[in-house]
Model the fold of this input.
Amino acid sequence: MTNLTSLVLDSNPLDTAIPAELFGLPLVDLNLTSCMMQGTLSDSFSQLNATLKKLDLSNNNFTGTVPLGFNELTVLSSLMLQNNALTGNISQGLCALKGTGFNDLKVLTLPPTVQCSCCVDEI
Done:
């Protein structure tokens, strides 16, 4: 499993926290949407900084704030966190990843309880 680059567990009732073992994989795409996952999001996401392009954690029960480790996901192009119980602010470091270039963050969806100075509401 050490060569796994895409993990899509969309809509599987896992009812757990994100396993720490995932952070040691060379993941490019991690989709855990609607898996009834819970707990806080770990700064360990920074371990995926050289590979992770798409991260979908939407429609779960994550709590706490968006970790500063997300700032280090420099090739991230899509981050979906909506429909969770997250709070706080998106850091300026994560905002700095936004742009229109090939490796820039283009999709950023958040719950309304997270403040974001660089986000634009989409209709």
Summary: The radius of gyration is 13 Å. The helical segments are 92-95.
